[in-house]
Specification:
This protein is of the alpha/beta class. 54% of the residues lie in helices and 16% in strands. The protein has six helices and five strands; from the N terminus they run E-E-E-H-E-H-E-H-H-H-H.
């Protein structure tokens, strides 16, 4: 089964993305819309760029970082609008997406759900041997790692997982089940 994952860390300023194909990283980068543009135009640019990635790379699975509920101010509305625009575009393409709470992928990668950016960067280097100077790229990479392992966990073809990672997947399944009901 060919699995091509797109993991997204959405932001109007700089959206991080990571593409994995059958456990191999194909691309990790950011999409930076021009800050001089109006917010709606930056949103359109991001939507169009992500759509092009999905079509060009023949993405089969999309995982998106969930909203940060600790955020405040006008940013929360902008983040919601961007998330809605991206989700609608994905559905219009006939695909589906999975939302991963920031605390969930952080616990999966670092072992604690409230890890700070510096801790995440360090743990990614220690666990995966990959160094990032940009935390948006690193977050997308982490979401992709979560996604890839989760897909194989559900298929029963997963490589070894830590106890914490298995607990994450069980909690993730429970949250998805509760959401569906």
């Amino acid at each position: 089964m060919l699995v091509i994952i797109l993991a997204l860390d959405l932001s109007l300023n700089e959206t991080g993305y990571c593409i994995l194909e059958n456990c191999m990283v194909l691309d990790v980068d950011v999409i930076k819309p021009m800050k001089e543009k109006e917010q709606i135009d930056r949103m359109r640019d991001l939507r169009d760029s992500i759509e092009q990635l999905i079509l060009d790379r023949k993405i089969t699975h999309i995982f998106i970082e969930g909203y940060s509920f600790g955020s405040r101010g006008i940013w929360t509305f902008s983040a919601g609008e961007l998330g809605g625009a991206i989700k609608m575009m994905i559905l219009d393409l006939g695909l589906s997406y999975v939302i991963v709470a920031p605390t969930m992928w952080k616990k999966f990668v670092v072992g604690v759900g409230n890890a700070k950016k510096e801790q995440i960067l360090l743990q990614v280097y220690k666990r995966y041997g990959v160094e990032f100077k940009n935390n948006n790229m690193c977050d997308a990479y982490c979401i992709a790692q979560f996604a890839e392992k989760y897909i194989h966990y559900k298929l029963g073809t997963e490589q070894p997982l830590t106890t914490v990672q298995v607990e994450c997947f069980k909690k993730f399944d429970k949250a998805k089940e509760d959401e569906d009901n």
